[in-house]
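Shipment paperwork, digital attachment
Item: protein structure file
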Amino acid sequence: MEKNRVRQLLAAGQPVFGTFNWLTGPECVEILGAAGFDFVVIDMEHGPHGQDALPGLLRAADAAGIVPIVRVTKNEPTLILRSLDLGARGLHIPQVNTAAEAAAVVKAARYWPLGERGFAPGTRAARFGALSTEEYIAQANADPLLIVHIENKLGVENLDEILAVPGIDVIFIGPADLSQSLGVPGELGHPRVVELVETTIAKAKRAGFPVGIFALNADDAARWVRAGVTYIALGADSFFLFNGAKALIEKLAPIRSQPAALK
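Attachment content:
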């Protein structure tokens, strides 16, 4: 298996750009790879995907040359295990609010001596047995990115302890859920939301962690990169389809209102 491009770029301090996959069908993931995104987050928390769809989506990502990362529904060992066994190259773990919860992520995602992930040598991640036990364990402990979500005021309050947990790779900020935890849902520009986002970025960077965040558009992404964020999840495939279709229909509106001009 080739090295994780996203991990390599982050280690070099380079920004990486991806998006969320909320549309069903492996072709959607292939399209995102063909478009040139570095990674795709196959979203099992907010997206419609069931466990049965995951193998096809992961194969499509591999075929398209885009790094597949799975957002599990919650911080639960079985969900983490199954996503990694199927070949996810990284995980988004929502609502990590304490050091104990961060440590549980590492414990569930890594093999001994780093964790206690259940071992099965015949999985897709182990190339169905083509890898030796030693090769597979080394790869599994070094390659998949563990990306924890700081999206609650409690997570920000406990951030110093979370950052001290060995094995976490990226700190991902969820401004929308953060606004909810502050009692100002959807107000992403609220001073308290901005304050906690800035605090999280500053602390994570000082501790040497890459920081990730959701961006609405290219201008938003550029703003975050200037602030030191290097892992950018830019919109979602459903947004792209809607925005592209809406822009096209809006351009067609004058034609619809003046059909005689076409004769």
